[in-house]
Specification:
The complex is a heterotrimer of chains A (344), B (268) and C (287). With 268 residues, chain B is mainly alpha-helical. In chain B, 74% of the residues lie in helices and 0% in strands. Chain C is an all-alpha fold and 287 residues long. The chains are: A alpha+beta (344), B mainly alpha (268), C mainly alpha (287).
């Protein structure tokens, strides 16, 4: 297994048009499951096609271990890609589809049949080997497409939005299957997705692309606790932002000084706290706020607050929210360990 | 870059191949005698063209007859084909395969296979040698084409629109004329234009059923050609391909995807 | 009104017209080929016409010629059309013009194309003139005989010219619906460019290609006006031979014409049966 390195990749689709990727550098650790996350148009599909060799980069390099694969044709890269749509070949059976890559390599049929049978069992399609793709359900087709790529034991496996074409009920099952197979095989895997919840649930590491640039490459937890920019924080559901200045371990702002943890950068900055970390009730950094709105959302309740002219949002359990009414004044505390400073 | 050059060469070869047989027709139609081995005629003239538009040559009359037959055939085929296309495009029913087979059959069975028998039938009905007889005969290749294209058009039409119109107070006729027809009209127009061309191109059916008394353009073309009038033949041939050119220019705007499939459905 | 009544009413006019014209024409041809002519007092069907046709040496040679014309035209046109469709699927300068020429060609009547080919490749045609200018020949008779020739080269040339665009357009429409993703998948699964074409794209367009080719074969086998313009006096293409028999003053040869028409119909029906089977079983072939 080898590390995948993207080095200053650039790509624009038309000479005059805007670039799709502006110098992307990313290292994907060997054996990791990395999510390439971003909204549509952020360049994640472009990145994936560049790695797969389906399009050519304008500049930059792609390396697997110490060899550059940038100029290799797709079939010689050791990179297999599973598209968003399963794209099973309609003229082949499920077994024919799964064995496709091995046949292209010219392996003897008996060995192909054995590998295919084993692979189909692993994705629980053993009974459907002789079916045609048209006779499969969406989940079955997606599993067959995954098996078709995995059987090749690629050095890198690329999955493009593997869950988006599935019913919600099937998503958890597929997510679990991808995790399990990835751990068992140890294949370096990159999942492209626009859904941050999916990225968090699936990946060891997330690389977030915004407008053709890598903005943060980190563990899923870090995206919540320590977002690199306001845009990252917003993408992960951040809504509370208060401008001010950091001096030593204190943040000066419109709602008065707030105690911070040690080691944050000094000077002007934007304080952020996740809505679920804002505590209703007594605690450190205690303030009084007025309730502007209470919205029951199911498992959580959203409370909109006004605090000295600053709008804040808190997410609490329905139990905590019981008895809160619009217009009431309540105490709010800002636990220092939940505070994070963004560049302003 | 080598691949680029190969592609350019292939494209040029294809374009040349497609245009080549038309070139001698263009030259002949303007030639005043064009003896071997002259590469181009010694003298150029518009004589063939002026003869072609002269009433005495009968070309204009043939043109009118041919166009009239094609128009009438297309209109009939549209009237009969629209409902049939609707049935095939919107419904699943027993015997649908059989109906489709019957519609495909005229494309696979050449005119020569049925025209002798048809002649016998038409003889008894007094239709041989008449324009209505020729129009009916032309329906054999034209109608299936129309029905199959309209079936494809209707298969992309959502009948819920009609239910919606009815629930808003439209009568069945209003629903058809204000909702259904506008929705299928682009497809119907394209189908009609190409149906026109199918009739316009018929040779054998006209020859056999027309019995020599219905002189359409292709028949006239062949008689001038076998008489060795290369100049006049070429002028008529160019006149004869004009409607096809017009149809293409009219539909060129939409010749991608959907209409490409319509054109693709045309008989060889 | 039930759906069934509605469907029946919608279909009735078209089915009546087709049954009245097409099936009646076919049926009467069949009856007369068995020499069933009550008007002439022939009420006992027999196979005399078929016997006469099959024993006449001209018929078998004409049948062979027509099969040769149809086979050669279809194979050449299909192969070239596949290449043309793959070419036109890409974007390159001049693509629009070529796409226009392809479609224009489809609208040109066969007889016009046949006359164009005649003026192009006959012994005094444009190519012969070019050969003379290049010093390759000194008289028309030295130019190879490409029209009215026993191998039907001129006829095949015309069909390739005319049917290549037909197959190309069907394939292009086909390729447009398929998109390029299946090939991309194949490439990422280790298929070379050629393997992706051979094992993925070709099998996927094959049903369309086969249907289009069958239509072309049927047409090239049964068309009358093309061999009329470009064909040799002997052997004649089967449709021309049949027409000649039908217009013969000897009434006996009319039944023979009907028998030949039935033979042509059988070939067309066989092709239709193949296509119908293919359509129903489309994509069902095993790997």
């Amino acid at each position: 297994m080898t590390t995948l390195v993207l080095d200053d990749l650039r790509k624009s689709y038309s000479r005059a048009g805007p670039a799709a990727l502006h110098g992307l550098s990313l290292t994907v650790a060997s054996g990791s499951l990395t999510a390439l996350l971003g909204p549509s148009g952020s360049g994640k599909t472009t990145t994936m096609k560049l790695i797969a060799g389906l399009i050519a980069a304008d500049s930059g390099d792609i390396r697997l271990g110490d060899r550059s694969i940038r100029d290799l044709p797709p079939e010689r890269r050791g990179v297999a890609m599973v598209f968003q749509n399963p794209l099973l070949f309609p003229h082949l059976t499920v077994a024919g589809n799964v064995g496709f890559g091995l046949r292209m390599r010219g392996l003897p049929p008996t060995r192909i049949d054995a590998s295919v049978a084993e692979m189909l069992d692993r994705v629980r399609l053993g009974d459907l080997a002789q079916r045609k793709p048209a006779q499969l359900s969406g989940g079955q087709a997606q599993r067959a497409a995954l098996a078709r790529a995995l059987i090749l034991r690629p050095e890198v496996l690329l999955l493009d939005e593997p869950l988006s074409s599935l019913d919600p009920a099937l998503r958890d099952e597929m997510r679990l299957l991808i995790r399990t197979l990835q751990r068992e095989t140890g294949i370096t895997t990159i999942v492209v997705t626009h859904d941050q919840a999916e990225a968090v649930a699936l990946a060891d590491r997330i690389a977030l692309l915004l407008e053709g640039r890598l903005v943060q490459d980190d563990t899923p937890q870090a995206f919540y606790a320590r977002p690199a920019t306001t845009a990252v924080a917003r993408f992960f559901g951040g809504v509370n932002f208060i401008p001010g200045t950091v001096r030593d371990a204190v943040f000066d702002c419109a709602i008065g000084p707030l105690a911070l943890p040690q080691g944050l950068p000094q000077g002007p900055g934007l304080l952020t706290i996740r809505p679920e970390s804002l505590r209703l009730g007594p605690g450190p950094n205690l303030r009084a706020a007025q309730i502007v709105a209470v919205d029951f959302l199911g498992s959580l309740t959203r409370i909109d607050l006004a605090l000295d002219g600053v709008a804040l949002q808190a997410m609490v359990t329905p139990d905590t929210a019981r008895g809160l009414s619009v217009g009431a004044r309540i105490s709010v505390s800002f636990p220092p360990e939940a505070l994070w400073i963004l560049p302003h | 870059m080598r691949a680029d050059r190969m592609r350019t060469l292939a494209a040029l070869a294809l374009a040349g191949f497609l245009i080549l047989p038309i070139l001698p027709l263009a030259i002949w139609s303007l030639a005043h005698g064009w003896r071997f081995p002259d590469l181009v005629p010694q003298t150029w003239t518009l004589k063939a063209w002026s003869l072609a538009v002269d009433a005495r040559s009968g070309v204009l009359h043939s043109l009118a007859v041919t166009a009239g037959i094609a128009l009438a055939t297309t209109l009939l085929a549209a009237l009969i084909g629209l409902p049939a296309g609707r049935a095939l495009g919107l419904y699943r029913f027993r015997g649908k395969g059989l109906v489709t087979l019957l519609l495909l059959a005229p494309a696979f069975l050449p005119g020569i296979a049925i025209v002798f028998g048809l002649h016998g039938v038409f003889l008894r009905l007094g239709l041989v040698g008449t324009v209505p007889g020729v129009i009916l005969a032309h329906l054999i290749p034209v109608l299936p084409y129309m029905v199959l294209v309209m079936a494809a058009v209707f298969s992309r039409f959502d009948p819920e629109f009609e239910a919606q119109a009815r629930s808003l107070g439209a009568t069945p006729w209003q629903t058809f004329s204000r909702v259904t027809l506008p929705a299928v009209l682009p497809g119907l127009m394209t189908a009609a234009l190409f149906a026109f061309l199918v009739s316009w191109s018929q040779y054998l059916l006209t020859l056999a059923i027309g019995g020599g008394r219905v002189q359409t353009l292709p028949l006239l073309l062949f008689s001038f050609s076998s008489a060795g009038r290369n100049d006049l033949t070429s002028a008529i041939a160019l006149l004869y391909i004009l409607p096809g050119l017009l149809v293409l220019l009219v539909t060129a705007r939409q010749v991608t995807g959907r209409s490409l499939a319509l054109v693709g459905g045309l008989r060889p | 009104m039930t759906d069934r009544t509605r469907i029946a009413l919608l279909l009735a006019p078209a089915l009546l017209v087709l049954a009245g014209l097409f099936l009646t024409g076919l049926g009467l041809t069949l009856l007369r080929s068995f020499r069933y002519l009550p008007g002439l007092g022939l009420t006992e069907p027999d196979l005399a016409a078929y016997a006469a046709v099959l024993t006449a040496p001209g018929f078998l040679r004409s049948l062979a010629l027509s099969l040769w014309i149809a086979t050669a035209s279809t194979v050449i046109a299909a192969v070239l059309a596949l290449a043309a469709a793959l070419l036109l699927r890409q974007t390159f300068p001049g693509r629009t013009l070529i796409a226009f020429l392809v479609q224009l060609n489809l609208t040109i009547p066969h007889i016009v194309g046949a006359i164009g080919i005649l003026y192009l490749v006959s012994q005094s045609g444009s190519f012969a003139r070019l050969a003379h200018a290049a010093g390759l020949i000194s008289a028309p008779a030295e130019f190879p005989i490409l029209t009215h020739d026993p191998y039907a080269i001129g006829i095949i040339l015309l069909y390739v010219w005319k049917e290549l665009p037909f197959i190309t357009l069907i394939l292009l429409a086909n390729l447009q619906t398929l998109g390029e993703d299946h090939e991309a998948v194949a490439r990422s699964l280790g298929a070379s460019r050629w393997q992706a074409f051979r094992h993925v794209l070709l099998p996927m367009v094959l049903p369309g290609l086969a249907t289009a080719s069958a239509l072309v074969f049927a047409f090239a086998f049964g068309a009358y006006e093309v061999p009329l313009v470009l064909g040799a006096h002997a052997p004649k293409a089967l449709p021309v031979l049949a027409w000649q028999a039908w217009t013969d003053t000897d009434l006996a040869s009319r039944s023979e014409a009907m028998a030949m028409a039935v033979v042509i119909a059988v070939v067309g029906l066989a092709l239709l049966a193949l296509v119908a089977r293919g359509l129903r079983l489309g994509g069902q072939d095993a790997r």
